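New to this. Please check this fold:
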Amino acid sequence: MRVIASSIRKGNVIEQDGKLYVVLSAENIHPGKGTPVSQIEMRRISDGVKISERYKTTDQVERATIEDRDYSFLYEDADGFHFMNSETFDQVQVPKDVVGNAAPYLQENMTVKLSMHDTTPVAITLPQRATLEVVETEPVTKGQTASSSYKPAMLSNGVRTAVPPHISTGTRIVVLTEDGSYVERAKD
């Protein structure tokens, strides 16, 4: 499907010169003088090479047909990440570069959306939030309840984040999978 370059967004898949590219960032630039352009950074799906392209905002770009399907995360090994289709029970292996920054937040049996082009996984979308345990943080200091300052904490997936002073080691918390920021104490 051909679309104008200014409508391309992060996560879209573009077909160019017979190869598929996933868009990492897309920015429309409107200089004071001259023609507006779309600056698009993308990664070639076949080998992971990153490229940067500049199109006039009115140029036509071929957007690949992508189908989103629900998959359950099974396990990770040296070959990549393994997922199972919840309806057909088909298993698919996803390369590490497709999963990218989402890897630390994957938990066994977590349902994710895999964007597929034919049978090739091109992108992954995690649930918005994940529940993790705090494995290391400074001890709770009495009398600091009114303070709005956050303290550093290490989570069970190895990611560092900032938590409120009342959170102690062993507490389960909810974080945003997009950036790892603290949301709330887990209710379970």
User: Anything to note?
Assistant: The radius of gyration is 20 Å. The domain at 129-185 is CATH 2.40.50.140 (OB fold (Dihydrolipoamide Acetyltransferase, E2P)). Residues 80 and 96 are 5 Å apart (CA to CA).
